Amino acid sequence: MTVHLHKGDLPDGLDLGPVVAVDSETLGLSLVRDALCVVQLSSGDGEGHVVQLDRTSYHCPNLKRLLADEAVEKIFHFARFDVAMFERDLGVVTRPIFCTKIASKLTRTYTDRHGLKDVTRELVGIDLSKQQQSSDWGADELSQAQLDYAASDVLHLHKLREALTAMLVREGRLEMAKACFDFLPWRARLDLAGWPDTDIFAHA
After folding, report:
1. C or N: which end of the chain has fewer Cβ atoms within 10 Å?
2. Contacts 24+ apart (CB under 8 A), 118-127
3. What distances in angstroms separate CA 130 from CA 42, 88, 115, one per listed residue?
């Protein structure tokens, strides 16, 4: 694994290909209170690119362009949160999307364990470390352990996408999954607008 740290933005001319794995790190899990600090990406080649954002301006035109590029599919695990953060702080609508957590819930109905660690262990055979998950991502200088952790969360998403797509096809649920992925930017907007826990489709 090779990790590249980029201060503020992705470098000019970096081509991560037509399918990019994406994740983010924040100061917490509140869409109201907590800041977006880091975005990590991988093209599935064993290299991770970690962007430490300038939180005074969030000026990162290359990263924003990539996230909004409809010719580039973005793979996430639990895209709902990241997409909401990107719209709130970066002002971009992220699409198209493949969410491995949604795909897992639509296919791995034999378990209720759909966290990235569990899905990666079963489908890729790799045990991810979550030791740095709750560390200070707003620090001026990120540790090597933080950088390695951030990169590890995106390095295997391409393989997960491949395995889960095969399962979706096998179970006849690929079109259903695609419809869910397409709805994610709107689900994120509902979260940002104050409906994070309300099932708007429920009768009551």
Report:
1. C
2. 119/77, 119/160, 120/156, 120/160, 123/159, 123/160, 123/163, 123/164, 124/156, 124/159, 124/160, 124/163, 126/156
3. 18, 26, 11
- Torsion sign (Cα): 105, 110, 113, 115: negative
Instruction: Give the mean model confidence (pLDDT) for residues 79-91.
Output: 98
SS3 124: coil
- Which of the listed CATH numbers 3.90.1150.10, 3.30.930.10, 3.40.50.1000, 3.30.420.10 matches domain 2-192? 3.30.420.10
DSSP run (H or E) holding 3: strand 2-7
Q: Would you call 176 helix, strand, or coil by DSSP?
A: helix
Residues 108-133: pLDDT tens digits?
A: 999 999 999 999 999 999 998 766 66
pLDDT, residue 134, reads: 73
Secondary structure letter of residue 47 according to DSSP = E
Beta strands, E only, 8-118: 19-26, 36-42, 47-52, 73-76, 97-99
pLDDT score, position 129 = 76
Q: Please give the backbone phi and psi of residue 65, each rounded to the nearest 5 degrees, phi first.
A: -65, -40
Specify whether the CB–CB gap between 168 and 107 falls below 8 A: yes
- The predicted-structure confidence for 152-178, as pLDDT tens digits, reads as follows 999 999 999 999 999 999 999 999 999
